[in-house]
Amino acid sequence: MYLIAGRLWWYEGTKATQAEIITLELSPKMIATSRKAFQDYGVENRVKLIEGPADETRATLPTSSSASLNGEFDLIFVDANKDGYEGYVKTILDQKLLSPSGIILCDNVFARGLTIGADCAPWVNDHVRPYWLACGQDLDGFNTRLVQDERVDVVILPIFDGISQIRWRDS
């Protein structure tokens, strides 16, 4: 339900600009729940839901929306499978989907603290530890390579479970 609330918060936060919000979703349960919530809250005029795996649907983004999109986004929020972050951000940058003054925010980049090491999050219980440990390894590599990308400036914010903020580097 957090994901749906997040989309509604983006909607509320962009009322003045009437920004279009595009969300990618894979889970059939989340798709159905999202569609119902968007209809119940009357936000379908600016919230577009694209169904399918992000690594497939992201390639269609410039043509999936209204003609006013022109292939650029001012804000891109990435909160998906952690092993896909690097590919998602690479596609965004390579295809220039981010506007010149835009920002990419990647959520959960600390992976419950496990980007630092296996012993850094003793509170993570054993049944989810392998998942978050694998995420930590993927996200550590993602963040390390990202800060080396000369096209962008990156700030890793220690907010909640970590957010990488990415923007085009000034020329």
TrEMBL record:
CDD domains: AdoMet_MTases. Keywords: Methyltransferase, S-adenosyl-L-methionine, Transferase. Gene3D superfamilies: Vaccinia Virus protein VP39. It comes from the Eukaryota. Pfam families: Methyltransf_3. PANTHER family: CAFFEOYL-COA O-METHYLTRANSFERASE 3-RELATED, O-METHYLTRANSFERASE-RELATED. Belongs to the class I-like SAM-binding methyltransferase superfamily. Cation-dependent O-methyltransferase family. This is O-methyltransferase. It comes from Apiospora saccharicola. The lineage of its organism: Eukaryota, Fungi, Dikarya, Ascomycota, Pezizomycotina.
